[in-house]
Prior knowledge:
The chain has 10 helices and 8 strands. The chain is α/β, with parallel strands linked by helices. The protein has 2 domains: 3-205 and 299-322, Spore Coat Polysaccharide Biosynthesis Protein SpsA, Chain A, CATH 3.90.550; 226-296. Strand 2, helix 2 and strand 3 form a beta-alpha-beta unit. The relative contact order is 0.16. The structure holds uridine-5'-diphosphate and magnesium ion. Magnesium ion binds next to loops.
Amino acid sequence: MKLSLVIPCYNEEGNVQKFVEVISQTFKNKIFNYELIFINDGSQDDTLNKLKELCNNSDQNIKIINFSRNFGKEAGMYAGLKEAKGDYITIIDADLQQDPNYVLKMVKILDEHEEYDSVVAYQDRRKESGVLTFFKDTFYKIINRLSEVEFVMGASDFRTFRRSMVNSILDMKEYYRFSKGIFSWVGFNNYYMSYDVHNRLSGTTKWSFWKLFKYAIDGIVSFTTTPLRLATILGLIVSLLSLIYLIIVIIQKLFFSIEIEGYATIVTLILFLGGIQLLCIGIIGEYLGRTYVETKNRPLYIIREVIDNQKGKINDTKNKKNL
Ligand code: UDP
Ligand code: MG
């Protein structure tokens, strides 16, 4: 098998059919075999039935991994990468925002350049609101400053890997997955290819601002412990400032007999210190909570069933020219 396409799907009933059609159209004249691995991530709409229909009626290699509930795109990607048999493996969304023609370009780049282990699609111009772009830019600035691995702005999960890189990604079994970080962390040589995002074919995005915010925190906590050090530094600075203030108060009292109006100062200081303490406990809590969850060692996802329209069939080896 030359290429596996991993497609996480959550409530994509309006897209999967068209997706398979477009793939079949795009790959029509290509002489390599490929498989489509759909992960049905606990969709509440008709996605599963649509996928089963496609699986029964299509002559393409289609596999459906049906999760027992919604585990999130990260878990879906992991499951897909694990099931993939291809020498090259592409992660692509089901909503056709990412034109499959780019997949062909990615395959070509990997075919022609042995030195690259993955091709990463990134957006030069992002089609989103200015506010969101601002927050995303800020996130990348912060995480790149704090973390030892580099996060490339605009880089998406739309990527094609060689198998060796996928094996390394699969070795990272952490529960809190922040794939963009994991992909950078494993290293290897990545080729960055700029691409234009289309509009969603149907349905709506699953990312609300709040979800993105939580995901950003996950990213920071997963890839750097610097915030813990910041808590220590913050504590040191506040202690130092309070010491200086104490000295000033003593001098004022002893040498100048200045009566200090205490009430407002005390209230402000108590609130200020209380805030800082809560902030630091919160930072520690973020790490501690994740440590707790990781020690439970729960599976990343649970599969209810796997449907494979090629089961029992021997892969067509005639077309393996490009391998
Ligand atoms: N997705 C998923 N599980 C989730 C949320 C999303 O498998 O819990 C899939 C979704 O079906 C789509 C891809 O992840 O194929 C990207 O999601 P979406 O299009 O909502 O994200 P966006 O393109 O807006 O960043
Ligand atoms: Mg999308």
